[in-house]
Amino acid sequence: MGCEEAKMSWGVEKILLPTDGSSNSMHSISYAVDLAQKYDSDLHLLHVIETNSYKGVLPYPEGESLKNRINDNLRARGNEILKDMAKEIEDPSIEIKKVLREGTPSKEILDYIDENKIDIVVMSTHGRTGTSKFLMGSVAEKVVRKSNSPVLTINTKEEKLNK
């Protein structure tokens, strides 16, 4: 079966590549680009900023102003991350959509998948184990368990070295 036949049977038109800007998430780019080239798919780059991660920490009157400055900085950094990731993709034939969202990363990724009818998600795992994984949770794990679309998880080189 050729690529065109595979695309018709599987229908890979939209690929989602969530990123947190870490070096781990950068390892997934080549996998997502390879799929996008093979299936002539659009590539959606998604970065989620957690604007509520410090909720309740800034209860003072000047806290609102500080919170707004922090959020502005997080948005600016998020846009830089998306811009840098898009630069890494050196194929002009791939249509790239850069999206910045705010909220809980796993929830926003899952909502984006459903809202945009994403065909496959490509994302890195961070390799947390034991107590750290239990306490921190894993965005990739939540997305794998709850996604309505297939999720290709990429183990990073750092993760393999830590085992």
TrEMBL record:
<comment type="similarity">
    <text>Belongs to the universal stress protein A family.</text>
</comment>
<dbReference type="InterPro" id="IPR006016">
    <property type="entry name" value="UspA"/>
</dbReference>
<dbReference type="InterPro" id="IPR014729">
    <property type="entry name" value="Rossmann-like_a/b/a_fold"/>
</dbReference>
<protein>
    <submittedName>
        <fullName>Nucleotide-binding protein UspA family</fullName>
    </submittedName>
</protein>
<feature type="domain" description="UspA">
    <location>
        <begin position="13"/>
        <end position="154"/>
    </location>
</feature>
<dbReference type="InterPro" id="IPR006015">
    <property type="entry name" value="Universal_stress_UspA"/>
</dbReference>
<dbReference type="Pfam" id="PF00582">
    <property type="entry name" value="Usp"/>
</dbReference>
